[in-house]
């Protein structure tokens, strides 16, 4: 339900105005109950800390970890735009909690303890629950921000019996992307798609630039999926096999399969793209 009567928002988008107009037609008793529901939701968000960030030094370190360790695997933000909003304190709370959740999966023990958590599971669980509650209460009205956060939540794995696991959140993200038409008339990825005109303005300490290997990984992964996306029948299956063979042969040197030990700095992206092929 979110905040249909607009009690907790300073600004208002046209979507908010449309929703407000719709709910303004309701009777007073119904409005009162909805206002009470919205008030309880806001109290819940406050009680679990969903609208608060960490101390700046902790927040900065988590942002640094996210853009170093996580962003190369999911480059779903414009780095210059994210930096601008982060420095101005305007990053969506939903997005911020999702980013923190993912960063806490990879940060040092010292950092998650500095953030106030006794162990890594509690740290990731807390930020995941904050983001999930923000999503469940429809707090965020921006469709793209919601899509970005939901995709990040697909990295959650709480337990073997978790129902809202990676497939749950991935399905929501795919449905939202399709409902926004993001799957239509999209040209194949190229290295130019990763270029940023104001790259010189980005703080490389916090918002590290992805490596060329990680960019090539996404370019060739997208091409792989485009070659294997047709419905199955025998002629297409044979063509797909030829396509796969030619795709693997076209991989650049940086993504060729190697037998050596794999590390984040060397061989990670080649290993990932070849695993996708298998």
Terminal CA distance reads 44 Å
The proportion of residues forming helix, as a percent range, comes to: 55-70%
Q: What structural category arises from helix and sheet content? A: mainly alpha
Low-confidence stretches: 3-11
- Which percent range describes the beta-strand content? under 5%
Which of globular, elongated, flat, extended, rod-shaped describes the shape? Answer: globular
Please state the CA-atom Rg, rounded to the nearest Å. 22 Å
Domain Xylanolytic transcriptional activator regulatory: 63-191
Organism: Aspergillus oryzae (strain ATCC 42149 / RIB 40) (Yellow koji mold)
Pfam family, one: Fungal_trans
Protein name: DNA, SC011
